[in-house]
Amino acid sequence: MIVHHFEEENSLLNQFISELRDKNIQKEAMRFRKNIERIGEILSYELSKTLNFSNKVVETPLGKKKILLPENNIVLCSILRAGLPLHQGVLNYFDNAENAFVSAYRHHPNNDDIFDVIVNYLAAPSIENKTLVLIDPMLATGKTLENTFKALEKHGKPKQIHILSVIGSIQGVAYIEKVFPENTHLWIATIDQELNNRGYIIPGLGDAGDLSYGVKL
User: Fold this and answer.
1) How many domains does the chain have?
2) What is the CA radius of gyration of the chain?
3) Is 41 helix (H, G, I), strand (E, B) or coil?
4) 192 within 8 A of 170, measured Cβ to Cβ
């Protein structure tokens, strides 16, 4: 796996990350969603540099101009519900992309620290020979991304795979390196050192879905 970790660089991205983490600022749900969206835009711009480009001719009112334009057929796949603000940021840049949505959640059958990731809804176009972009803001254990990718197998085999995340854990990154093809690209803003017993990122930022859309029952 090729990991693109942007916390190691000096950029405005760190400002948005700091506001997502700040327990006082993150109380503003609209600002929280907007910061995730902006991070999605930045990661999308960086990802775009790795796509396939070809020369196209654009006709202006005064003449013609050759310009390099991306030619990939892109499918964006977001994991509900926390992935929606990040999905919007990516879609702002890849506005001609097809879209897929997966509902995945952690199931604690015994109400303890042991859990399974359940995928119970999938709406997706064909991903055969296309560029698949998996969108999940929190890469904690990596099991959600693994199960999502497995659920998409019946829709074809992608030509390229990219994963976009806001915050991950070292353990989660190591896990998906084992279960995804080796030429997969991970685009991630920041990586934290540990998970707690229930598989949440520490220090992380809390529950991205709840902070974006309100506490669920």
Assistant:
1) 1
2) 18
3) helix
4) yes
**How many CA atoms lie within 13 Å of 10's alpha carbon, on the beta-carbon side?**
0
Catalogue the E-assigned strands of 37-172: 53-60, 63-70, 74-80, 98-107, 116-123, 131-135, 138-139, 160-169
Q: Residue 86 is part of which domain span? A: 2-48+73-213
Distance of alpha carbon 141 from alpha carbon 174, whole angstroms: 9
What is d(CA 211, CA 24) in angstroms, rounded to the nearest whole number? Answer: 12
Is residue 186 domain-resident? yes
User: What residues have CB less than 8 Å from 131, skipping those under 6 apart?
Assistant: 51, 72, 73, 74, 75, 158, 159, 160, 161, 162
- Label residue 89 exposed, middle or buried (CB < 10 Å: 0-12, 13-18, 19+): buried
Let me know if residue 79 belongs to a domain. yes
171: domain CATH number is 3.40.50.2020
**Nearest alpha-carbon partner for 17 in 36, 30, 3, 37:** 36
Q: What are phi and psi of 124, to 5 degrees?
A: -150, 145
| Tokens encoding 211 | 């902070």
Per-residue pLDDT of 146-196, as tens digits, reads 989 999 999 999 999 999 999 999 999 999 999 999 999 999 999 999 999
Look at residue 108 and tell me whether its pLDDT is greater than 60.
Answer: no
